[in-house]
Predict the structure.
Amino acid sequence: MPWKETRKMDQRIEFALKALKSPNFRELCQEYHISAKTGYKWRQRFIEEGLAGMSERSRRPHGHADELREAVVCEIVRLKQAHPHWGPRKIQALYGRKHGKELPSESSFKRVLERAGLTVARRRKRAEQTGRLSSGAHATQPNDIWTVDFKGWWNDCRGLRVEPLTVRDEYSRMILELRVLPDARSDSVRQCFELLFERYGLPGAIRSDNGSPFACSHALLGLSRLSAWWLALGINLERNRPRCPQDNGGHERMHRDIRYELQSQRLGRDQEAFEVWRHQYNNERPHEALAMRVPAEVYRPSERTYEGTPEDIDYDYMDVRKVHKQSGMIRYRKEMIFLSTSLSGWSVGLSTRNDGLLEVWFSTLLLGHLDPQTAGFQAARTPNEQKPKTC
């Protein structure tokens, strides 16, 4: 503050007296070489406290981590030791849930943990240009999008391979499933999803990577038997771009927590231990993106109930062709046209366009176009470029 060192107190009193009756307050502030904000402060103090308010006040912080009671410091350290991979904000939220009032500030939590040697400086990464899913879909409520993947495998303490399946609701961050399956085949994953659908209902869409059994790289539009079943249930598909895990960043972030807290312990195929961790993640761990609420407080089951797998798909007024169970072909005008063995046993719908070509639909997904003259089939380029069709 630009008061003269020799008589700060006198200058403030002089300024305050003039400020009470000055017609141009800002010019008065300029005369004393102070900002209007500082001028208002000293005038108000003079009005409220008189001459005593003109004296210099201590700039010491009102609160500090050193002033926390020993019991509070010990509780902060204990919570951090119980959750070594949680940051100060989550520890603060957990402390508030357990003890209610008299919650220390976030900076106090940071200082206590730093002085206890329980924090690690975060490495800053340079921001890179990254693309987005071409669908641009984002969940706006629970069950809009479920995300699924297999956590990268590890060997347990007995040398056995552990590779759990993880299913997560994108909006609420709720982990719906964390399970070690006997194998990663389509039938095993389908059985797991049947139980999930019975418990939580059907989501609007499921996002996955391009790996098996969620997709098949050499099949029509990458459809696998599992993803074809999802479409038959009325669930839309979303895919990551190849080699772009950031397209499913929230799920990968959850996998990092599993790596730190489960894989680091070389946990084996003990499903009960996985359930304990999943319950803690869903019911105890606060999330910053949820305003420090826990996923279980945000998630609710879907209104779309699961009524089992339909016998076939209804295409209303479209011309229907059954995909042969063994060959993956459909018959059109005595010609056999190959689509995909992933669609074996299901029906596809044929819809005539204005230019004479036939659109070939599977549920709400446009597979491609069929030329009635040559019986030639042209596959659509990518699923993300298609517009869902009401069947």
User: Anything to note?
Assistant: DSSP finds eleven helices and 14 strands in the chain.
